[in-house]
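hiii so um. not sure if this is the right channel but i have a protein structure encoded as tokens and i wanna go backwards to a sequence. like what aa goes where. can anyone help
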């Protein structure tokens, strides 16, 4: 089942709250309760379905907010159950059941907000990130710039998550960009004479047809791979896998993919992931 990002869930809940007529407490016309009609039940069920597809790893909130999240979700489930379990006879005799704010949830606050469960979920999800670095992600200690290192770790985590979720094109394309970023960093840390020596080796070996611009910022992935290989920054085996990853990354161009009759799939994603692992090992 496709996953939902917290920010997307927030936008959906805001839209559905409008459909329910739930306006902020500071605005006039806020309902004290809502009749649990079939329409209301469908909307609440939709909120539940959306929230349940948010990866648990993205619910990065403290214990109180996590408790509020769980309580609000159960409140919605109870409301939907209440609506579905009442037959027509009971409804005529006792009236339509009500969907009410969670008065008890904010009881300990100095200014109780009397939020509906959908509002509680909205407020909790506002605090959740759309991306995190999974604990299993490599540390990349050779990247000395802390902010850049964490940015690359976030990308690496996203590649692994995409691979796990079957999002093979995303894993292939993002993984190719990550390979380029890793090699760019490592080669930029070399001195100009060192890079020139690596380039000369690549030209001599004919893995590069000519010397590229001296500034690595102008290089493409092919150049990074061949210069890194010629300078023994990465092993010959790693370079072979990286070349395959480079070719697969090019499949994002429809014309090339059509000409080669290929597409991004689990195999391409795994190849790119393997290239990343080999490069990280070589650079560590």
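sure thing!! here u go:
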């Amino acid at each position: 089942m496709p996953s939902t990002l917290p920010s997307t869930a927030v936008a959906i809940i805001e839209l559905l709250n409008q459909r329910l007529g739930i306006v902020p407490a500071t605005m006039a016309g806020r309902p004290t309760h809502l009749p649990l009609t079939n329409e209301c039940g469908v909307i609440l069920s939709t909120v539940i379905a959306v929230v349940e597809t948010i990866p648990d790893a993205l619910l990065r909130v403290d214990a109180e907010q996590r408790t509020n999240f769980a309580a609000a979700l159960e409140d919605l489930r109870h409301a939907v159950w209440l609506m579905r379990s009442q037959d027509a006879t009971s409804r005529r005799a006792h009236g339509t059941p009500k969907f009410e704010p969670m008065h008890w949830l904010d009881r300990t606050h100095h200014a109780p907000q009397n939020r509906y469960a959908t509002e509680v979920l909205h407020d909790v999800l506002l605090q959740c990130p759309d991306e995190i670095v999974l604990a299993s992600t490599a540390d990349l200690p050779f990247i000395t710039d802390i902010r850049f290192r964490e940015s690359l770790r976030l990308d690496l985590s996203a590649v692994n998550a995409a691979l796990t979720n079957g999002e093979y094109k995303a894993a292939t394309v993002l993984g190719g960009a990550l390979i380029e970023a890793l090699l760019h960093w490592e080669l930029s840390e070399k001195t100009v004479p060192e890079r020139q020596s690596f380039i000369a080796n690549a030209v001599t070996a004919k893995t590069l047809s000519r010397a590229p611009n001296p500034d690595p910022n102008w290089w493409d992935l092919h150049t990074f791979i061949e210069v890194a290989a010629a300078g023994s920054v990465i092993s010959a085996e790693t370079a072979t896998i990286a070349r395959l990853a480079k070719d697969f990354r090019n499949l994002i161009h429809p014309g090339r993919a059509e000409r080669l009759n290929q597409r991004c799939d689990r195999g391409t994603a795994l190849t790119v992931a393997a290239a990343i692992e080999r490069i990280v090992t070589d650079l560590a």
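oh and The radius of gyration is 27 Å.
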